[in-house]
Amino acid sequence: MPVTLTIRYLDKYKSIIKENPLIATEIENVLRWVSYLVSGRFNNSNIISELVYTSSSLLQICNDILLRRAFNWKSNFSDVVERLKIFVTVIEYTQVFFEISAKKLAGEAGKWIIISVIQITKAVVKLILLFKYNTGLQRQIAFMPLDRQRDVPTRGLNPPTVETEPSPDQSGNQPNGQSIVTLPRSGRVIRTLDNAPPRQKRTWRLPTETTLINQILGREDKNAPPTVLNDIQKLAEVLHILRPLVHLSTMKTFGPNSWTPSVVSFGMDVTSLRLLNQPRNLWNASERLELNQRSFSLFLYLMRSPFYDKYTKVKIIRILTILSERIPLFGSLLKPLIQYLPEWQRTYFYVWNA
């Protein structure tokens, strides 16, 4: 009886999500806000907060899989590759929770064992995806989440359609709002001015149905095939994939307070980005986003030890303290942040994750 009731509720949940995908986003956002509100409220709140946040991320994966199947989302990769991407994404979403749980249950030794196992597993899977299945740049979040407002219809299971060559009416004119028009005398097909893309993105090619949908929705094709990497670019990806393991190894050799692990890790990041340097128009949209995120992650070294401990920490706390004292209402918001900042820095700003 309980099993039957559970299956019934799951089926009802699936039908609701299929009818309105935005509800899934709202549920996930509620869980994330709950995780923020729980932080620092009671003993072991960091574990509870991370568990709730991890649950929201895992729920997002489940909802995306459900919506992909419901709307027949086509992938450029085989089922094996998709499963590997889901597997490594689940590891990415759950690793912080496992790290802090291991530290609570087994101390520092258990924490470092879990960290090592997680990073080795991630590196092995990413190398398999890179060399065996030629999946190109390895995104930090391998299983790309759907944009519920753009990638899927808000209601119903039929994807949006765009009529690229509408029939003229009795006066010989094209209906309003169409993207191309046929000249009555020459029969030449041209794009209408009202539906032309921005000037910097215009080409001489007529729009296809796919490109029209992307223009109307304001997005590029997220499911574009990956860019084929040459040998130098594959070497750059290997440096990026192995960098967490090299960082952990140097920490074990030189100690956690040494500058050597951070310098070596930073050098590998910069070298990888330099080797991947090529004209931006050769990368697809998701690859450009990944490269931008990798470039931005270089600034996160300011929040990572030992640089944070020696330089950044004092300046950030001083700025937050001044703001909380001089700006009305900021005190109640910033004082808990100042108290919880060391815990956040130890939990999230570690080199082996990004």
Outline of the structure:
This protein is mostly helical and 354 residues long. The protein has helices spanning 2-19, 21-38, 45-70, 79-131, 209-217, 231-254, 260-275, 285-297, 307-326, 330-348, and strands spanning 180-182, 189-191.
DSSP strand content: under 5%
Mean pLDDT across residues: 80
Strand order of the largest sheet: 1-2
Query: Helix count, per DSSP?
Result: 10
Low-pLDDT runs: 155-177, 209-219
The strand count comes to 2
**How would a crystallographer describe the biggest sheet?**
2 strands, antiparallel
Radius of gyration: 25 Å
Question: What do you see in this structure?
Answer:
This protein is an all-alpha fold and 354 residues long. It is built from ten helices and two strands. It has helices at residues 2-19, 21-38, 45-70, 79-131, 209-217, 231-254, 260-275, 285-297, 307-326, 330-348; strands at residues 180-182, 189-191. It has a two-stranded antiparallel sheet with strand order 1-2. Strand 1 and strand 2 (189-191) form a beta hairpin. It is globular, with a radius of gyration of 25 Å. The two termini are 45 Å apart.
Helix and strand arrangement:
Layout: H1 2-19, H2 21-38, H3 45-70, H4 79-131, E1 180-182, E2 189-191, H5 209-217, H6 231-254, H7 260-275, H8 285-297, H9 307-326, H10 330-348
Antiparallel strand pairs: 1-2
Helix pairs in contact: 1-2, 2-3, 3-4, 4-6, 6-7, 9-10
